[in-house]
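Record pair follows.
FIRST:
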Amino acid sequence: MSDDFMLDTDDLERRMDGAMANLRTEFASLRTGRASASMLEPVMVDAYGSMTPINQVGTVNVPEPRMVTVNVWDKGLVGKVEKAIRESGLGINPQLNGTIIMLPIPELNEERRRELGKVAGSYAENARVSIRNLRRDGMDQIKKAKADGMSEDDEKLWQDEVQEMTDKYIKSIDAALETKQAEIMQV
């Protein structure tokens, strides 16, 4: 029975990739002084009785480097979209022009850059915690197989593989954080 143990490393890696993709999405939502349509991804609008992503109630465009526009499809939702953007914590003051909401992206001051750097750090730490939890899941599976009669050599081999995978993802999280913080601090 012990020879049959196979840790599903593909599943573990897929789940770790998911944690990295989530981190990239969170990083994309942080504004760096340049306009980006992805910065509105986390904004949810109370539309038609449920919370809806902003890109499902209008078209998000970036017509120039310091401007994002949202062309709201339903005229009745313009006020709700504006309110959702205002309350999102992005620090952007929306301006109405009919069904188009214009979002001028102001220059970031030094204090705001530092705050965003800390937010990026907390996003990275959450990703690290997710990776460590996945590592623990893998190690638990190995311990269970050890209790079922797996040899110590096999146990060590699998533990090393899981740890190696964990280290690789933690390193890529750290690299992504460093890149994002440099981007945020760039004037």
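SECOND:
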Amino acid sequence: MTIDWISTLQQQAEFANQIADDVKQTLEIPDLSVAQATRLYRVVEQGAQTFDRIMEEMESADDVDDDLRDGAGSIADVWTNLSVTTANKVRALQGLSLIEFPSRQR
């Protein structure tokens, strides 16, 4: 069975962008609790892990060109940023120091 990588990445990009919008709105809630922020972090991590599995599948596929791999890398960056952002919100609410955003290696 051949995977339509273009369609898969388009769907994943739309999903990641929707989650990013939801995260932004949720993090703006003034009285966001640690429990709520932690739940949001878990949702983000589940999405990131799902996308990691897609990336692994892409890596093992022979029919994926470099442009699609680059696109997947951009989506992975969105998930990384969401993960760090939500983790930092949890940490801030707990009075802990924030973690720095990783830079993408090329």
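COMMENT: The mean pLDDT is 93.
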